[in-house]
Amino acid sequence: MKLKRFLLRYDPPGVGLEVEADDQVTVQHKNLPAKSEVSTSKEVHTLVDQLIEAEPALLTRKRHREGLIQLLGRLYQVETAEEERPSEGAGPGREDAAEDPKDRDELHGQSVVLTGLSGSQQAFNGEVAVVVKARGDKQKYEVEVKGQVVKVKGKEHLLQVSSKGPLAAGAFVAIRGLRNHVELNGCVARVAECHEESQRYEVRALDSGQLFRVKKDNVILIETTPAVLAASAAMKENREPNTSPRKEGNLPATGETDDVLEVGSTVELVGLKTAQAYNGQQAEVLSVDQVRGRYEIRLGDGSVKTIRAENVRLLQGKSPRTKRGRDKLL
């Protein structure tokens, strides 16, 4: 049997152990005392020790005690005193608890945004989590997200949330909370332009260089770490040669989010080098290929073309009048 993760139940208090055995996943539910019965750090520690002792085949003090203390501390809204943890228990358990601090890194206890997760964890991309256990030497982390404790392998999947500075042009953010385009959740981007009157932000993704217009609720400010700066520099160096440099504030709106470049949107063609005569013309979006970063558009003369996402900019107003017809691709 292998423990995959913890599941937290708030009312009534309880914890679930998600266990995998013989390619089947089951959940073992453990009822916990009422919130009125647990009010101190010592009581939380005792409760955690009882859980571990009751499931020796699944739980160990070294691997699970600290994460459970953090988890139950939040469940019962109790501050778990750091200095109490090594003093709990005796013998090997005490020694294991004393080893934890050296294994932690600076992310321990911090709020982070999850990014780049795949498989069964992909749904967590863009979610804000709290690091409850960090072993920086082995790049192993446990985070609490949506009432669950999830194991994450690799520091690159954790973006530290920033509480400093305004959400302004030049700031680094993570895209989150998109429902129609979940593949963008967790994407790291840089704010290119702010539209305070409409509470929209134009942000450029560091991995693709595409520009997205998103709502304020769909971005969160992150720390400017060396890894983020390196990704930003790489994005600038790897821009496709078909696009011309532009001033900030005249950037093409690219990609698709919940409120931009849907079918029927009116756009302006920009930055074309091999077909410069089309620059400045307006067109209507007919279809979107999010994977390839392409749009099928219809120009004012009725011709239909396919164009790269970075070569269109969203316009306000009605679509241009069109006629039937199809032309060669740009």
Written description of the protein model:
- The protein has 330 residues and is an alpha+beta fold.
- It has four domains: 2-103, no CATH class; 111-160, SH3 type barrels, CATH 2.30.30; 172-237, SH3 type barrels (Roll), CATH 2.30.30.30; 266-314, SH3 type barrels, CATH 2.30.30.30.
- Helix content is 17%, strand content 31%.
- The protein has five helices and 18 strands.
- The protein has helices spanning 41-54, 61-75, 84-87, 92-103, 226-237, and strands at residues 2-9, 14-21, 24-31, 111-114, 128-135, 140-145, 148-153, 158-160, 172-175, 188-195, 200-205, 211-215, 219-221, 266-269, 282-289, 294-299, 304-308, 312-314.
- The protein has an eight-stranded antiparallel β-sheet. Strands 12-11-10-9-13 form a five-stranded antiparallel β-sheet, with no helix packed on it.
- Helix 1 (41-54) packs across helix 2 (61-75) and helix 2 crosses helix 4.
- The longest helix has 15 residues, at 61-75.
- The protein starts with a strand and ends in a 16-residue tail after the last strand.
Give a short synopsis of this structure.
The protein is about 15% helix and about 30% strand. It has about 325 residues and is an alpha+beta fold.
Defining key terms:
single chain; 330 residues; alpha+beta; SH3 type barrels; 4 domains; eight-stranded antiparallel beta sheet; five-stranded antiparallel beta sheet; 5 helices; disordered C terminus
